[in-house]
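Entry: Transcriptional regulator
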Amino acid sequence: MTTWEGLGKKRSEVGKFIDRQGYSQEDLRQATGIGRTTISKLCNDPNYVPSPAVMKKLLAALREIKSDIRADDFFDF
C-alpha cells in the first residue's frame, strides 16, 4: 500500500483523508468501482468536483470507513 502523506505531493481533501486512514488510491478504486483517472483527480486535484454519480459511489465507500462523512467535508459547493 502506497500513500503520499509527507512526500510533498499535492493532495485533495479526499487524498489526505485516505492517506490518514491508511488506504491507497487503488483501495479506493476497488471499493468504489470508479476508474483510475477519476480516482487520481479525486485524490490529487483540490479543485475537482465529481459528477453526482461519482460522488454517490465515493461517499458510500468513505462511509464504510467513517459513517458521518459528508460531501462538504471534501468539496466546496
